[in-house]
Amino acid sequence: MKREKILHSVGFGLVGLFYLVAVFFVFHKPSEQNNKQIVIRIAHWQLEDGLRQAFDDVGREFTKLHPNVRIEQLVIPERIFPNWLITQLIGETAPDLIEIGLGIDDDRLARFFVPLTSLVDEPNPYNKGTPLESVPWRNTFLDGMYSAYNPTLLDYYSAGMTQHTIRLYYNSLLYETLMGTGAPPPRDFVALQNVFTKVAEYNRIHHTQLVTIAGSNYNGPIIMDQYLSSQSQKLQLRLNTLLDFSPTKYGTQIDFLLGRWSFESPELQSGLTLQHIVGSNLTKGFQSLRREDATFYFLQGHALMIASGSWDVRTLRSMASFPIEVSPVPLPSPQNPTFGAYTLGPFSETDESTTKFGLTRHSKHPKEAIEFLQFMTSQRGCQTFVNTSYWLPSVLGVKIPEPITEFAPIVDGYTQGIAFHNFGSDAMLVFTQNLYKLYNDHDPVTSFTQAIEPHLKAAVRRDLRQEIDTRFRNITRDDTTLAALLWKLSHGDNSEEIRSKAAALILNQHTMESDTYCLKTDLDSPAARQP
Amino acid sequence: MPSTIPIKKALYEWRLYLFILPSLLMVGVFIYLPTFSAVYHSFFNWRGGDAKEYIGLENFVHLWNDDILWQSLLTVTVLILANIVKMLPSIALAVVIHRLTSDRWQYWYRVLVVVPMIVPELVRLFIWKFFYDPNFGVLNRLLDLFEFKPLLIWLDNHFLHWEVFREGIPIPWLSDPHLIVPSIIFWGFPWIGAVGVLIFLAGLESINKEIYETAELDGATGVQKFLYIELPLILTQIRLMIILLVIGTIQGFGLQLLLLGQDGGAGGAGMVPGLWMYNRAFGAGQFGYACSIGLFLFVIILTLTWVNNKYIRVQK
What we know:
The structure holds two protein chains of two kinds.
Chain A: H1 2-28, H2 32-35, E1 38-44, H3 51-65, E2 69-75, H4 81-90, E3 97-99, H5 106-112, E4 149-150, E5 155-156, E6 159-163, E7 166-171, H6 172-179, H7 189-206, E8 211-214, H8 219-231, H9 233-239, H10 249-257, H11 266-279, H12 291-299, E9 303-309, H13 313-319, E10 324-327, E11 354-359, H14 366-376, H15 379-389, E12 392-393, H16 425-438, H17 444-490, H18 496-524
Parallel strand pairs in A: 1-2, 1-3, 8-9
Antiparallel strand pairs in A: 3-11, 4-5, 6-11, 6-12, 7-9, 7-10
Helix pairs in contact in A: 3-15, 5-17, 8-11, 10-17, 11-17, 16-17, 17-18
Chain B: H1 7-10, H2 21-41, E1 44-46, E2 52-54, H3 58-64, H4 67-85, H5 88-99, H6 103-114, H7 121-131, H8 138-145, H9 149-160, H10 177-186, H11 194-205, H12 209-217, H13 222-233, H14 235-251, H15 254-260, H16 273-283, H17 287-311
Antiparallel strand pairs in B: 1-2
């Protein structure tokens, strides 16, 4: 009885103690209220090694300049980021700055984010004292903020800090065992096919199950899309009647509906054949594997190579027990006897910015959030970030850290062709549900083409209808702002600022409207409605 | 005949009603409000947030013509039937534990059944996912070790004609449309659910000992005792489990989402209605349409529950 009483007292005592400790921590947690510090919350999905530290470093640097502002980062795993983001945006509880990319389409961009267009022609104040001091913000980026501009909404919505390139990482010890000491990495597709053969031989002799390229539903498309794209480079040029070398995905889809190309075109058939060859040398069943599975295969030495972006360099090198080398993805050259006819050559690795952040409409501190965004994309902020993260910088004059120089974009090359990612969500569903046919042994290309054909046009039409609806909604959304501006103008407020804002908005609306009607006219044309 | 309480008497201690207010408020805000919101939004072209357009029954017309939804209903029907069969090991184990004569051993077997419950579902999921891994998974290794693969190849060549079991090629359990549903059904083998066993045990323990004694005097065998005594007297528990199972299977999609992704895997073979609802909401941004799928599932569940209650009669 006495023992039971003691046990009860200890139990209640522990509960009480932990309660008091919790209360203490809650009341001593630094908050905006008790120390008057403004908290800017930024959200991203970068869980790679060194990234959180890099954001913390930039935040600390910023706080040194603005002691009243503290930066808090929310790191949400990539898998759940889109869903998390939607609930935050709809619930009006979103952080101040959000990484743009996953889960954000034009509709959400227009509804929940603030356009930065009025700022891009002004210099970034945090570049003061550098050669970029008087340069407009947009010209301080390697891509001239091209990737931050939304051609549908006709506004700038984000600013990015980094760039990325895709590389084939390989286990150099294993590679030398297979290919001989000092063997160079595969430079083109013929050399890669030689690696495939050597791995198959190795498995046969040693009764092993070594995989040539670790694949997953994340790493697979990274490399596979490039092969499809390489075979449709010349086709894409033929379709690009405006000769602006920047075909839009909607243009590609309309061309598909109008019958200007199809998956039965020889170029696409050749691309699919390539995908089949490469896919057969990826981990069996890679479509159902996840990114971490592929990384695990590679790091455990079960796979010779893995295709990923420069974002993984720090993670892979820090976790591997073997030396890792990298090489560009070996694509077929124009001289390739089988796959050279439709290709122009290696892709030009664009200098598009990534890790782009946008300002949400419900930010409580938009001024400070913009200042932090400008700081992140200043020479000082960007250098601090890349020094810790080992990611490639997007800002002019920022030095690439030594360990990642081999990832610097190779800009000499040609435009990309058509790939699956040129399509919308319903069409993607058709592809992903039928991709397994492409990795079968029995007539893979034909069976895949025949499987997608009955559904693809309808799916593309649905995607385009949705796009048109979204655009019209975005146009009408601006009506309220425009009405307010016009009301001000008609009631005597004739300031330059109001006049220029109204004129810009009218021009935006007209351009968006004409673009959308063009798309609608194409979509409604008899040719595009053919089953 | 229940007598009615006069209002004055019911309100005499009116302050007591205040105690249930917080719970009522919580239930209202977190359960009924979202439900009514879903019903309301199923009549709109809603892409989340405040922007929406009333479209009447258009979502339901779309739903009626949605091939993927109907296909997913077929898949979920197969899974429900399989899950009902998968209930049998739990019933069998509950009967075996119930019939143990030693209380001490009964206690320990119950503990053994409950212990796996403390393993988080996510851990179990990853273990099973690794089990199905085509290249290094346990299942393929076991098939090779015990030389079952040639048998599968023979079956495939002569009867199935799926062309998935081939010499020297790992079996892609989760990336071939023919194997996805069988893999999901096999998931969790030997299908002993701790909650199910405990519920059936509770039902078995309420059976009067005298009934067993009478049956033994009449010379009933173990199987006869099960068929004529135990099974009829635990039908209440079985009915409850079937209702929970049907609701869970129709609503559930977590397993498919984690294993196959939101597209339902190769050929969409693993697509179930819940996953399609999720896909439409979070993949395509068609929240209004997703709400109408949810409403449709609600009607199906209600109908199946009613059928279950009406046709599975409990012998008192």
